[in-house]
Amino acid sequence: LAKTTQPISMDSYEGQEVNITCSHNNIATNDYITWYQQFPSQGPRFIIQGYKTKVTNEVASLFIPADRKSSTLSLPRVSLSDTAVYYCLVGPFSGGYNKLIFGAGTRLAVHP
Amino acid sequence: DAGVIQSPRHEVTEMGQEVTLRCKPISGHNSLFWYRQTMMRGLELLIYFNNNVPIDDSGMPEDRFSAKMPNASFSTLKIQPSEPRDSAVYFCASSTTGTAYNEQFFGPGTRLTVL
């Protein structure tokens, strides 16, 4: 499984766009990039997954450059409720393989 | 949909006692995971079942830990005997193999304190 590196913490203010970048230099051809969000006292929650280029859903966007050695989670116009830990995970998606390895994550604090 | 159900939500026990954590996965999901989360070590995968069969238990820390999945709707994680260093939040998650997004659904967790 490819190792991921992301900032330990970030600070932002309400209404700003937040971009969290994750490095995964050893990503394999069949690996997908997945982001999870964890609020205090709760289990992690899936946010978004992608393979290349850009993926967007109602919560976030995921930007993946052509070399796929990094990815950026973008949260538009954050609110206080977006304060959480964000995990970047890389692993194969298909073939019944279902194991995810969580790193340290990025602790995002959104201020008024 | 009730989501993943875990019980108990909180458990306080004394060193040496047996602890059993319970999990009911989402109906129809065929993969089940047990994780442990601490401040020092973060979120660690302990064991992973697929179709009730343990696939990967390399994360189980010691022989004191054991997990079972007797059927598709129930799993247990047992610690015997428990030690203070086992204090952590234990999460159960479930998913469906081979579907889009490889999404795991986590339960609310069991906060275990071993005195």
Main attributes of the structure:
heterodimer; A: mainly beta; four-stranded antiparallel sheet; 9 strands; globular; B: 115 residues; mainly beta; seven-stranded mixed sheet
Written description of the protein model:
The complex is a heterodimer of chains A (112) and B (115). Chain A has a 5-stranded mixed sheet, with no helix packed on it. Chain A has a 4-stranded antiparallel sheet with strand order 2-7-6-5, with no helix packed on it. Chain A is globular, with a radius of gyration of 13 Å. Chain A is 0% helix and 48% strand. In chain A, a hairpin with a 6-residue loop joins β3 (31-38) and β4 (45-50). Chain A is mainly β and 112 residues long. Chain B has no helices and 11 strands. Chain B has strands at residues 5-7, 10-13, 19-24, 31-38, 42-50, 53-56, 65-71, 74-79, 88-95, 105-106, 110-114. In chain B, the strands form 2 sheets. In chain B, strands 2, 4, 5, 6, 9, 10 and 11 form a 7-stranded mixed sheet that branches. In chain B, a hairpin with a 2-residue loop joins β7 (65-71) and β8 (74-79). Classes of the chains: A mainly beta (112), B mainly beta (115). Chains A and B meet through β3 and β4 of A and β5, β9 and β10 of B.
Helicity level of chain A: under 10%
Q: Using the alpha-carbon principal axes, give the shape of chain B.
A: globular
Largest sheet of chain B, if any? 7 strands, mixed
Q: Spell the H/E element sequence of chain B.
A: EEEEEEEEEEE
- Spatial order of strands in the largest sheet of chain A: 1-9-8-3-4
Tell me the greatest interface. A-B, 24 and 24 residues
Total strand segments of chain B: 11
| Rg calculated over all Cα atoms of chain B | 13 Å
How would you describe the shape of chain A?
globular
Number of strands of chain A: 9
Low-confidence stretches of chain A: none
Assembly form of the protein: heterodimer
As a percent range, the share of strand residues of chain A is: over 45%
Distance between the termini of chain B: 36 Å
Mean pLDDT of chain B: 92
Given the structure, what is the number of helices of chain B? Answer: 0
Helix content of chain B: under 10%
